[in-house]
Structure formats: structure tokens, C-alpha cells
């Protein structure tokens, strides 16, 4: 499910006005509003960031980066982004 939400990527400064939740296959889908600590993947640069307490996304800490690197859903999202970018560049 997507929700209206405006933020800037803290890496490439792209403005995004939508966010979608990533869930495991077969998981129950319930509406989800962005919450502090949620992880996002920038569709433009492919970098992950975290929703901070001020409502803006921030760069990852080293600990968060290592945790996301081990997360299977985040790995699949990043792989899908790489595939999408490769396909777009080949066209």
C-alpha cells in the first residue's frame, strides 16, 4: 500500500511524495503510516535511509547499515532496484 508522504533523500536530495511498505510474501497487509525508525529505499539513488523524529529521513548509522545489509527484505528490495536501474539504462 502507498501513502502520500513528502521527504528528501538525505543522499541525493531527490524529493519523494510516495512511500510503500515492504512486507514478506503472504504477510497480512494493513495500512501503514510512516513511523519513526522506518527504513526507506530511494528510488533514484538506491540508498537506504531512516525516518527520524523530526519527520525527515536521515542517513544510516554504521550499526543501522550493517543491520539493513543482513535483512532479507532489504536485500531483495536493493536487488530489485539494481535490476530496475540496469534495465532502464539498457533501454
Question: Which range does the strand content fall in?
Answer: 15-25%
Gross morphology is globular
- Total domains: 1
Please report the total strand number as a whole number. 5
Q: Give the biggest beta sheet.
A: 3 strands, antiparallel
User: What's the total helix number?
Assistant: 2
Radius of gyration: 13 Å
Structural class by helix and strand composition: alpha+beta
What does this structure look like?
The chain contains two helices and five strands, in the order E-E-E-E-E-H-H. It has 91 residues and is of the alpha+beta class. The chain has one domain. Strand 1 and strand 2 form a beta hairpin. It is globular. The protein starts with a strand and ends with a helix.
Essential attributes:
single chain; 91 residues; alpha+beta; three-stranded antiparallel beta sheet; two-stranded antiparallel ribbon; 5 strands; 31% helix; 24% strand; globular
Amino acid at each position: 500500500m502507498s501513502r502520500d508522504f513528502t521527504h528528501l533523500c538525505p543522499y541525493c536530495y531527490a524529493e519523494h511524495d510516495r512511500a510503500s511498505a515492504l512486507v514478506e510474501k503472504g504477510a497480512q497487509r494493513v495500512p501503514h503510516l510512516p513511523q519513526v525508525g522506518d527504513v526507506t529505499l530511494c528510488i533514484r539513488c538506491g540508498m537506504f535511509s531512516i525516518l527520524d523524529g523530526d519527520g525527515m529521513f536521515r542517513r544510516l548509522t554504521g550499526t543501522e547499515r550493517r543491520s539493513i545489509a543482513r535483512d532479507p527484505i532489504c536485500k531483495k528490495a536493493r536487488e530489485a532496484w539494481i535490476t530496475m536501474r540496469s534495465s532502464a539504462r539498457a533501454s
